[in-house]
């Protein structure tokens, strides 16, 4: 009896979502959820990335109960070569899916990080071991073979205008520096202001980044004000 019931519900497509529209629906849901998250966790200006990610994962899962999304923390991203990596949150349409159709990476933006981690939203200090947020997507170790994903910044010091300028200055440095790197940094990596800073709680920027294999990935950047 249980076996028959299992067969009847297995992988049934959701008729309410038209083909090709699920990512758009997801983006809307993420933006609405980040505002809820901001309301509940405003003031967490010293909390670690790991703890905030745990809270964010639980918030996304709780509010998506009636939607066809599964948010899995620490999702394995299989690599063609070398050790597999993990992205902070992978998004799946069904429990039997092997690969996420969207990924979310999160970073802190704060003046309290040590000098070797201050640019971590963009890049790490060791080019042979990518640890930066945008850097990992460009290396295709996050958002593996995807064309769209997201980065969430927990703004714990200063504000989104400050960090928007800072992040773009770090990217500009990579564009002009004569350094040995496998990545091609260019003006498309710069964050584009799509929000005009109208809402201090949550600001959104976009970029179209070139991966190491020359494929492109569109990144949605969300700066979440926890001040």
Outline the secondary-structure elements.
Blueprint: H1 2-9, H2 22-41, H3 49-63, E1 70-77, E2 85-92, E3 102-109, H4 133-138, E4 148-155, H5 160-176, E5 192-193, E6 202-210, E7 216-225
Parallel strand pairs: 3-4, 4-7
Antiparallel strand pairs: 1-2, 2-3, 5-6, 6-7
Helix pairs in contact: 2-3
Note the main attributes of this structure.
23% strand, 7 strands
Number of helices: 5
Number of strands: 7
Question: Please, what is the average pLDDT?
Answer: 89
Percentage of residues assigned to helices: 25-40%
What number of structural domains do the residues give?
A: 1
Question: Could you characterize the architecture of this molecule?
Answer:
The chain is built from five helices and seven strands; from the N terminus they run αααβββαβαβββ. The longest helix is centred in the N-terminal third of the chain and has 20 residues, at 22-41. The protein is an alpha/beta fold. Strands 1-2-3-4-7-6-5 form a seven-stranded mixed beta sheet, with helices on both faces. 29% of the residues lie in helices and 23% in strands. Residues 1-13 have low confidence and may be disordered. The radius of gyration is 18 Å and the shape is globular. Helix 2 (22-41) packs across helix 3. The chain has one domain (20-225).
């Amino acid at each position: 009896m249980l076996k028959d019931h299992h067969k009847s519900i297995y992988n049934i497509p959701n008729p309410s979502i038209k083909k090709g529209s699920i990512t758009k629906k997801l983006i809307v849901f993420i933006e609405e959820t980040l505002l809820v998250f901001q309301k509940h966790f405003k003031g967490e200006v010293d909390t670690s990335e790991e703890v905030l990610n745990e809270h964010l994962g639980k918030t996304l899962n709780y509010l998506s109960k009636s939607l066809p999304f599964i948010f899995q923390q620490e999702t394995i991203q299989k690599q063609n070569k070398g050790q597999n990596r993990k992205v902070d949150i992978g998004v799946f349409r069904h429990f039997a899916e092997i690969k996420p159709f969207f990924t979310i990476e999160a970073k802190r933006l704060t003046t309290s990080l040590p000098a070797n981690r201050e640019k971590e939203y963009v890049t790490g200090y060791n080019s042979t071991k990518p640890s930066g947020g945008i850097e990992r997507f460009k290396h295709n170790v996050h958002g593996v073979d995807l064309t769209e994903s997201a980065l969430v910044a927990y703004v714990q010091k200063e504000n989104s205008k400050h960090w928007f300028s800072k992040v773009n200055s770090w990217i500009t440095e990579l564009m002009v520096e004569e350094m040995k790197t496998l990545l091609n940094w260019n003006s498309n990596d710069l964050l584009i202001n799509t929000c005009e800073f109208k809402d201090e709680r949550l600001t959104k920027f976009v970029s179209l980044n070139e991966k190491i294999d020359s494929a492109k990935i569109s990144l949605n950047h969300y700066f979440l004000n926890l001040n």
